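During the reporting period the student researcher (J.K.) took over the structure-prediction task from the postdoctoral fellow and processed the backlog of single-chain submissions. One of the processed entries is reproduced below for the supervisory committee.
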Amino acid sequence: MSALAGYLDAAAAQQPEKRIALVVGNGAYAKSPLATAANDAGLIAQTLQAAGFDVIGARDLDGDTLRKSFRDFIQKAENSGPDTVAMVYLAGYGLQLAGDNYFVPVDSAINRENDVPIEALRTGDYIRQLASLPLKAGIVVLDAARQQPFVNGQIASGLALVEADRHMLIAFNAAPGTVAPAEQGSYGIYAQSLAEMIRTGGLPLPEVFNRVRLRVNEASKGAQVPWDSQKVDAGFTFFERAPDAPAQPPVDQVAADRNKPIRELGVQNAYAAVLERDTLQGYEDFLGAYPDDPLAKRVRAITAARREAITWRRTYRADTPNAYWSYLQRYPRGPHAADARRRLAILTAPLEPPPTFDVIEYDVPPPPPEEIIYVDRPVLAFGDPEFDFVPPPPAPVYYLPPPPDDFVVLEPPLAPIGLFILPQPVFVPFPVYVRAPRYIAPPPNNIIFANIHNRAAIDSVINRRTAPAPAAGPGDRMGGRPGAPAIGAGQGGATPTLPPAVAQRATLIQQGKAPVPPSAAINPAVRTGFPGAPGGRPGGPNSVQPANAPAALPSNQPLPRTNALPVPGARGAPPAPPSAAVNPNARTAPGASPPAGPGVTGARPAIGATAPAGPPPRAAPPPSAAAPSRPAAAVAPRPQPQPEMRRAPPPAAAQAARSPPAARVAPPAPPPRAAAPPPRMAAPSPPPRMAAPPPRMAAPPPAPRMAAPPPRMAAPAPPPRMAAPPPRVASPPPARPAPARGCPPGARC
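J.K. obtained the following structure tokens:
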């Protein structure tokens, strides 16, 4: 029997492991937008793609679409088979009410506690469905414990303590009953720490989240303490480490510390040890060993929050008047006092405890008086300056190695250019010794999974991508430049596929069959930059908002265009993404004019860029900027600069793409610049550049077009390049100018 069992275990180990994930980032809330929620979801989605997960993801989902996406994902997990690891990551606002946790859609209208079960999504319902499936492992991460703006003082803060089911892991970005501080960078501390630990390689699943807790506590200076509960019995690692990888801290030293009494570790090591264990008993042991140390105040607040959360969980699971009276006896002004009284009213029991009743037995002793100050408040945040906590010490290296240099400060993500699509983080290559396990089933059409060590390969997709879109038909395209193949998610793109329900909703909106959601007009990127971010990237201190950001569009722009639903670069739509200029070989576009002549390619900056007066590269703008009295002559050459945007080096093209649309498309913009071009065109270098084109253009049919202007350029006083275009339209008498224009419609040739 033992040999058969071993054979079966070996056979099971050889079965391909399927990995699927649902990632949602909700930030466009009307009451209080979240600047990093969508970015965090994009970062986790990209990291999971690299780890071999078949990821579907979206941002800013309403309640109906969010519920349908969950149902579709549960169905997908059910059909995937027993060798499946399913992961869910939700970033946004979370609420707890009467022992249940809720994730808030962006369209929710929550104003009081009774609205929560109706407007928000109860996560426990879907977690239980996921736990009921015969999966290898299920992972649910709620990055949603934040100070909520919906209900004031009537519900407990943060998320409710829950217990993971078999083969499940549940994680919060902050300890039960507490909230994380407001984020200040391009990514949240929790999401970045989770991505770092997933990328480390070789870490068992529990160790990943233990290190996340230590990293977040260190990075937030103690203001945030993540939490998790897990009962995953199957072996699982996101990545493996090659045999020649740098040595990791010895795990036996950490294991030895786990078996030592807290008082034998020293106060700093003891603090790291109790955080790594994250148990109420461990925190109480620290307080017993070091009651007068400055760190004891912080540990006491953590202990108070955990004790109250355990007490409330025992209370609402009993769900009897005696249980709620027992809670109110311990915490008359506690975080869940209002919940207890609501349940008593539903049970038609007196709100105040009677003189005598059967007090239920709790798993934890009553709180000591010094803990009450931390829980008798509407919101518990460990970073509250009122507490005056000392910063925590750094964890020992064998508990928490330093972060990789390339993952300390992450560049801001590329701005999303489509409705519901997650932002695309700037990819950070994995170390060569970190690799995905060989036994996992490769996800379909995943460019990141196939190139985790090659940033150039992934950047070539990111930089030339149009907006990733569902591959369900022509109406599904969320953006893209005309004539360019759309790199849809799941079709070789780097952005996760939209969930089916979201893709269907996006298609209906694009076709005009469904209204644009109000959240689309909300710009959640309140603070997209951070000190030290490159000014040339979105979110940098000197950057401007992307052209497709709602706040950056002209006031007369229709609402659908604020979501980049039209094709970028089309009239009235956001400009083409910076990637439109990446390919140096694409010198012309279909329907565009040929290059102006030698020396222009790569020398003329992108339209809309600024430069000192006088240099030759600025020769292109004057025809459209110096002829307010000759509209025909000013409009005729306008299509000509478009190829230059594609020939310009990527930095110049990126700068042009970040310029406001009016600078490149709207004709009324040039008049204020009309006075500036003459001095720039007076430089001695332009005439030779105008003389060069005729020989090059003599062979093709348009040659006469370039030969006519030189004789007429001598008459006007301004330089030839400035004066040449106007006479081509405004002086019909000469016989030669007409053929030079190539016989436009309506002209006599």
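The committee noted the following: The CA atoms of residues 577 and 657 lie 6 Å apart.
J.K. will present the remaining backlog at the next meeting.
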